[in-house]
């Protein structure tokens, strides 16, 4: 069993301010020399939504392009969020950004795809937001609770900023 942290998966939401999560993940990567993998999980469209789209959009290529556009838009938002974060870091941001080994958007059930991606990348740690405040079991949001249930590696849960 190795004791070093070589790969960290940082899960970033696009709706909320994720600077606190990024900050903790970058600090951990900097302190350990680990590769940082940034991930945003897009929830799959429900079956009834996809069926409605298939019925109303007969052109399969157009439908495929529309579904792909969701992921491309999410990737652009993720890239913009990361650029915003690193530009706010000021001097030395290039060094911090050098820890980022990948930045991806994946589609599926978020908790499941997060754990799968962590396994695929041989991550030693997952960093993600709690999305809620408090000391009860509801402290973590639905996705975070799902990751905590499924993960076989440590999960660092970052509370939202005050």
Describe the structure.
The protein is globular. The chain contains 6 helices and 5 strands, in the order βαβαααβαβαβ. The chain is an alpha/beta fold. The longest helix has 29 residues, at 60-88. The chain has helices at residues 19-32, 47-56, 60-88, 93-97, 110-120, 142-150, and strands spanning 7-11, 35-42, 100-107, 125-129, 155-158. Strands 3-2-1-4-5 form a 5-stranded parallel sheet, with helices on both faces. 48% of the residues lie in helices and 19% in strands.
Helix content: 40-55%
Total beta strand runs: 5
Individual helix count = 6
Q: How would you spell out the order of helices and strands?
A: EHEHHHEHEHE
The span between the termini is 38 Å
Mean pLDDT: 87
Class by alpha and beta content: alpha/beta
Rounded Rg:
17 Å
Mind describing the biggest β-sheet? 5 strands, parallel
Low-confidence stretches: none
Beta-strand residue percentage: 15-25%
How are strands sequenced across the largest beta sheet?
Answer: 3-2-1-4-5
What distinguishing features does this structure have?
five-stranded parallel β-sheet, alpha/beta, globular
Would you summarize the structure shown here?
With 162 residues, this protein is an alpha/beta fold. The protein has helices at residues 19-32, 47-56, 60-88, 93-97, 110-120, 142-150; strands at residues 7-11, 35-42, 100-107, 125-129, 155-158.
